[in-house]
Amino acid sequence: MGCTLFITFEGIEGCGKTTQVRRLADNIKGMEITVVLTLEPGGTRVGQDIRRMLLDSRNSNLTPLAELLLYEADRAQHVEEVIKPALEEGKWVLCDRFFDSTMVYQGYARGQDMTLIGDLNEKCCSGILPDLTFVVDCPVQIGIKRALKRNEVHMEEGQDRFEREKRDFHEAVRKGYLKMAMEAPKRIVVVDGTLNKDELEKVIFNYVRPFLAGGVEA
Q1: Which of 33, 117, 190, 194 is the most buried (most CB within 10 A)?
Q2: Secondary structure (DSSP) of 3-58
Q3: Is residue 218 in a domain?
Q4: pLDDT tens track of the chain, all 218 residues?
């Protein structure tokens, strides 16, 4: 179809973004488009080790700066090893979290210097920006309830450092995402994470449909 596309999914813990990024990938496969489905942190072998460190609840003393630098290290490897090559090969890349997560979690919620985060993101992303970002928004109490239920079934034991954060932290994350969406309305689309999975899937697909028609060159 002659165009590549880089789509990212963002949101608080338990918002449902991981389900939706997988559903979107399934929907566009077979449309003469090759899709690469990936995530941060953990989209590479090196990144998987970093992910375990970041999510390990035993690492409660991890400093905000160390946390930030680990995320950026994961991103630098991820961009060079996965995202950049896929886009250069004409593939679509769907990513579960990208640099917006760092701006929100480590910036708005952790209080790290936003200029520093911006500079690190710029360096680690090698000039690559998402063409479209979905923020799956839902109230914190709903997201955390879902996340804890999910963790009981699917998550490796102890990999819940962020779910253990206080509610104020998660509220700051949500407000950060909504603020960023207001500042970048051409790129960031806020969708309702309280919809049922099928309804939300349709909403997201309708935003992507114009790109499938080849009307936008990335």
Answers
A1: 117
A2: --EEEEEE-STTSSHHHHHHHHHHHHTTSS--EEEEESS-SSHHHHHHHHHHH-TT
A3: no
A4: 447 899 999 999 999 999 999 999 999 987 878 999 999 999 999 999 999 999 998 998 999 999 999 999 999 999 999 999 999 999 999 999 999 999 999 999 999 999 999 999 999 999 999 999 999 999 999 998 888 777 665 555 566 778 778 899 999 999 999 999 999 999 999 999 999 999 999 999 999 999 886 543 33
- Exposure of 146 by Cβ count < 10 A (0-12 exposed, 13-18 middle, 19+ buried)? middle
Is residue 188, in this structure, part of any structural domain at all?
yes
139, 33, 141, 125: which is closest to 82 by C-alpha?
Answer: 125
